[in-house]
Structures are given as structure tokens and as C-alpha cells.
Amino acid sequence: MKVPRLVCPAGSLPALKAAVDHGADEVYFGFRNDTNARNFAGLNFDRPAMVEGIRYAHARNRRVLLAINTFAQPGRAVDWQHAVDEAAALGVDAVILADVGLLDYASRRHPGLRLHLSVQGSATSYEAVNFAHREFGIRRAVLPRVLTLAQVETVIRNTPVAIEVFGFGSLCVMNEGRCWLSSYATGESPNTVGACSPARHVQWEKSPGRMNTRLNGILIDSFADDEAAGYPTLCKGRFEVQGETYYALEEPTSLNVLEILPDIARIGVAAVKVEGRQRSPTYVAQVTRTLRAALDELADGAQRYHVRPAWQKELARVSEGSQVTLGAYDRPWR
């Protein structure tokens, strides 16, 4: 049984080095502009940082993936094309793309450049993956976080393309980075502004005994003084539905696949991805170190693999709401 590769996030050069130092097989990063879906102020890479990051990773026999995973805006396609050209010139090991026009450009302009289909491409079937393989020669596809493990296995059985799945971090119940709820609430696409809830639209309202959180004036949640106030993301807010107030769409919790890692390896998943380019180097180090230990134990033999309490404790410390879930991988309905 082949153990999946561990793919870890890098929102900065220190985060990249933390991922490499703690056992990532591959790291992924982005330019400091809107070709990158995590286009946060103060994060991401300029060219000198990219050159150093690639040198650091390659010196340790690790791969570097560049995410150009947003959709080219009208009249600005050349900006995204230049990003692909720069990726090829830098010598990254693969480029992660979602835009079909950009996939076409990259495959024709740089035929030797390895292409991965981004999760933002929302390919949930082997037909979609095979289309991208046939037309653009993609070598790997990142599946959205809405498929059961059985559905992931069906994709793998019916495509020659290597399949990557998420193993830890925030969940997404929408169209992977293109949430219409966020677009409606803020008037901006989360695909190009770097976040589902851009900071300029977030309001915190403190009153005696309460903390209300709003997104562009829309009340997302209300917390008592003894509750931890979460960042106001629409899908993870509490809403009143038919007289009851609860997490109507999704609870604030993190995906954690430790207990099903043997199944993920058994069905032939090629890579397990950690979400979190917006997170700190400390988060990257902690999650990478923990998943590396789990994957190494799995490599020693699936029959002997067991989830150590210390691993769960480490990951719970950096999970949303200190809670973890198997997400869609283990949903009871089909």
C-alpha cells in the first residue's frame, strides 16, 4: 500500500521552511496578488522569497507547487498568463490551476510544465477530471471537500490522474472558494479577495454580556461572555430557523482524517493536503509534524496503525472551535 504524499501550506517563507523542516513532501504557495485565492495583506510571496523558498525545498528533495487558482478577470487575462509564465521560469514542480482558459494557455505555452487541477475547479466526478486530463494534460486533481470516501474511490478507479484530497483544516460546503453567499453579503468574490469574509466587511459589536459578529451588516452570530467568539463566516454562523437558533449550514469545526488514513491510502489517494496558507508558521509546523508521524506509522504497516491520543490533542489545539470532524467522508446519508 502506497502512503499518500503530504502537501502543506505556505503563506510565508517562514511557513514554507516550517513545513519542509517538519516533514512535508510538498509545499504550496502563491504570488502576492489576486491570481492567488489566499490574497491576504502581509502574506504570500514576492519573487525573491519564491526563489529562496524553492531553493530551500529543492535542497531537501521536497516539491514546490504554485497556486494560480483564481479565475482571470475580464480584460485582465494577461495578468494570469504572466503568472503562469513566471511559474515556469521559476522552476516550480507544478502549477495548481482552476481556470479552463488558463489551463489551455499553460498546456500550450509550457508543455513541459506539470499541471494540477485546483479544488476551485470543483471537479467532483471522474468525467470532469478526465476532461481536464484529455484536454490539458493535468497530472493531479484536488477533489472538493463534499465527497464521501466511496465517491473518492469511484473517481480514483476511473481516472489515470493522481488524486489529492484534503486531510486537515477548514471545511467548505459551497462551491470551493466561490461562495455565492459571501458574494451576496459583501459584493465581492471570495475567489479574488482572499477570504470568505474580507476583514473590511467584518464588524464586532460588544455590549454587556454579548458579542455580536456581523459581515457587512448581516448578523452572523451572537456570543455570551463565556463563549469564544468566532470569526464571522456565513456558512458557520448560527441562524434562527423556524423558531430555533443553531448552526444551520455548518458548525465551526476542522476536518481531521487521522482515523481514516488507512482507508485513504487503501483506495489509492496520491496526496493528502493541509488547508491553511492564511495560518501561522506555528500552525504549519504543528499540523505537518503530527500528520508526518501518522503517515510514517502507516508506512510501517496498516495493520499496526492506530491513532495516538497525542496526535489528536495536537490537532485539536489548532482546530476551529477545538473540534474536529470527518466531514463528508463519513456522512451517514448518500
Structural notes for this entry:
The chain is an alpha/beta fold. It has two domains: 5-171 and 253-330, Alpha-Beta Barrel (TIM Barrel), CATH 3.20.20; 190-247, no CATH class. The strands form three sheets. The protein has an eight-stranded parallel beta barrel with strand order 1-2-3-4-5-6-7-14, surrounded by six helices. The chain has a three-stranded antiparallel beta sheet with strand order 8-9-10, with no helix packed on it. It has helices at residues 13-21, 47-59, 77-90, 100-109, 126-136, 149-157, 180-186, 190-193, 261-266, 281-299, 309-316, and strands at 5-9, 26-29, 63-68, 94-97, 115-117, 140-142, 162-170, 202-207, 210-215, 218-224, 238-241, 244-247, 254-256, 271-274, 324-325.
Q: Given the helix and strand composition, which structural class is it?
A: alpha/beta
Strand order, largest beta sheet: 1-2-3-4-5-6-7-14
Largest sheet: 8 strands, parallel, barrel
Broad shape: globular
Looking at the overall shape, the CATH architecture of the largest domain is Alpha-Beta Barrel
N-to-C span: 27 Å
Rg over alpha carbons:
20 Å
CATH topology-level fold name of the largest domain:
TIM Barrel
Q: What is the element string, with H for helices and E for strands?
A: EHEHEHEHEHEHEHHEEEEEEHEHHE
How many domains?
2
Number of helices: 11
**Helix content percent band:** 25-40%
Number of strands: 15
Overall mean confidence score, pLDDT = 91
